[in-house]
Amino acid sequence: MDRLALRVDAIAGECATSLASRLGMANGEDRLRSFCTHMGLSIKQLRLGDVGCLVRLSRLADVDLNALSAWTPKQNEAGYFDLGAERIKFSAFTRTTMRMCPTCVAEDEVHQKGIWQLSQIRVCPDHGWLA
User: Fold this and answer.
1) What is the pLDDT of residues 66-92, one digit of tens each?
2) 72: closest CA among 63, 61, 62, 81?
3) What is the pLDDT of residues 31-73, one digit of tens each?
4) 3 state SS of 131
5) Which of 18, 29, 25, 23 is nearest to 8 (CA)?
6) Neighbours of 83 (CB within 10 A)
7) How many H helices and E strands in the chain?
8) In a 3-state reduction of DSSP, which class is residue 130?
């Protein structure tokens, strides 16, 4: 399967795991792990920003690979992730707790922006919400 019939719109700044989760929900899967298994995606590799997983997900969702890749943390070296053009130490990320601006959620839908995974980012640039 190259592209899913039921897709979701890409949201600016959204990371791959968030897109995969929303895509799974649209296709009847309430768990990211189950969706990844059914679609032949390694959830571990998706969380690490593996290029092959990002390519597969972008095709399934019919979204721009470059935009998806830009906002997905990618582990290219042990202990470090790349997010956009920045190389960031793993300890700077908070990836076990989902943080988001409630106003952004009310305006769009529930999603996780890649930048919100950085523990130092505490204020929404659009709404001033302090986490």
Assistant:
1) 999 998 999 988 989 888 888 888 777
2) 81
3) 999 999 999 999 999 999 999 999 999 999 999 999 999 989 9
4) coil
5) 23
6) 20
7) 6, 3
8) strand
